[in-house]
From TrEMBL:
Transmembrane segments: 20-44, 50-72, 84-110, 116-134, 146-164, 170-191, 211-237, 249-268, 280-298, 304-327, 339-361, 367-386
Name the UniProt record assigns to this protein: MFS transporter permease
Keywords, sorted A to Z: Membrane, Transmembrane, Transmembrane helix
Keyword Membrane: yes
Lineage start: Bacteria, Bacillati, Actinomycetota, Actinomycetes, Mycobacteriales
Length: 408
């Protein structure tokens, strides 16, 4: 009887604002994953780019995103997420059209960078809108459900992007990406108007803490290391699988990853809300170490698929858990800055990854690269213990106190 009353007392999670934000976020991430897995190969095939230049064509998106992250939190906090979201979704639609007319590698790189800038601002805005709609007592659970959109995009995007580019051509892929961007812009107009007016923050001067919020810096630096490891998967898995004749396994890697992510999200968010951060981060780090090690020693397709399962349980667990931590670390009026700080540092890892890891892979091979990333992830897990895991903020009691304070 008591459990039924407790369940009935739970604040509502799936509100119209949350659901619309979820759909916009899914569409944006789907466009990202449609393009990121084919861009390096596109640069080589269409413009005869070198491996380094092709890697930069792919990572220029993240370079633009990293630049925009420095200001995205401040803009969202001072101007409001809704206004920023409208503007940047329109820019994303324009850049998706730009892929259709970019006739040189330099033009592609410029379009990618502009797309990255708009994407960074839009993703910060839509996350802030969603976090504002999530009840504080269900913060990690709601964040987990929200980032399922990222998970589905991860599962659908790479495989669909490769299939469309190989069977229908790159033009069809770019047109489809443009259509998704236009749909996202249309969805933004259905978002309810916020209850609060951000105009009171509009006059606040830009400060260094608006780039990197000090309280989010520790967990953000942890995500930088994890993002560097993740870059090795999303950027080079396709090339690695072709080289090692593991293309069938690579084709199912992201599907397996998505399946395990979705399965884990149904309970890991609630675990974090009730038991604290450490158990969830520990699960994520161990699983991701196993994923990368399996990729490093893979000799059969089934090993790549199993690695995909552990990727979902690894990176797919760590990312939303760290987002919930970041939101909890800042006051409500600095939510945009807290989110952008985490995204900024994660993007630094994703941006450096293709360049740095491309150099390592060229000299040592992909297998050694993945084994090295497995060791890096283990080091990141140890680093987490010192920068957050031993603090009261990571413990269940502190999570429950923070929840009450947010509600008040």
């Amino acid at each position: 009887m008591a459990s039924k009353q407790s369940s009935a007392a739970k604040p509502r999670l799936f509100t119209p604002t949350f659901l619309v934000a979820w759909l916009i976020n899914f569409s944006m991430f789907l466009v990202f994953y449609l393009l990121v897995t084919i861009m390096a190969l596109y640069a080589v095939k269409e413009f005869s780019a070198s491996n380094a230049a092709a890697g930069f064509a792919s990572s220029s998106f993240v370079v633009g995103a990293t630049f925009a992250r420095m200001f995205s939190g401040w803009l969202v906090d001072s101007m409001g997420g809704r206004k920023i979201l409208f503007t940047t979704l329109a820019v994303i639609a324009v850049t998706c059209a730009g892929y259709l007319v970019a006739g040189t590698l330099v033009a592609v790189i410029i379009v990618r960078a502009l797309h990255g800038i708009a994407y960074a601002l839009a993703s910060t805005a839509v996350m802030a809108i969603a976090q504002g709609a999530i009840p504080s007592s269900r913060r990690a659970e709601g964040t987990g459900y929200f980032t399922m959109g990222n998970t589905l995009a991860t599962a659908i995007g790479p495989a669909l992007g490769l299939a469309m580019s190989s069977s229908l051509g790159y033009t069809s892929l770019f047109v489809f990406s443009l259509a998704l961007a236009v749909v996202s812009l249309g969805l933004a107009f259905t978002l309810p108007k916020p209850d609060t007016n951000p105009a009171s923050n509009a006059s606040k001067k830009f400060q260094l803490s608006d780039i990197v919020h000090p309280t989010v810096l520790p967990i953000g630096s942890f995500m930088l290391l994890i993002g560097l490891a993740y870059a090795g998967v999303i950027t080079f898995l396709n090339q690695y699988s072709v080289q090692e004749n593991l293309t069938t396994g690579a084709g199912f890697f992201f599907l397996a990853s998505a399946f395990s992510m979705i399965s884990a999200r149904t309970f890991l968010g609630r675990l974090q809300d009730h038991r604290g951060d450490n158990p969830v981060i520990a699960i994520g780090v161990v699983c991701y170490v196993i994923c990368l090690a399996l990729l490093g020693i893979a000799t059969s397709d089934w090993m790549v698929v199993v690695a995909g399962i552990f990727s979902g349980l690894g990176y797919g667990t760590i990312a939303p858990a760290c987002q919930a931590i970041a939101v909890r670390c800042v006051p409500a009026h600095k939510m945009g800055t807290g989110i952008s700080t985490l995204f900024l540092l994660s993007d630094v890892g994703l941006g450096l990854g293709p360049i740095l890891l491309g150099y390592i892979a060229s000299n040592s091979g992909f297998a050694m690269m993945y084994l090295g990333l497995s060791a890096l992830t283990l080091i990141a897990g140890i680093y987490y213990i010192f920068i957050h895991g031993r603090k009261p903020q990571s413990k269940p009691h502190h999570v429950q106190i923070a929840t009450v304070e947010k509600i008040d």
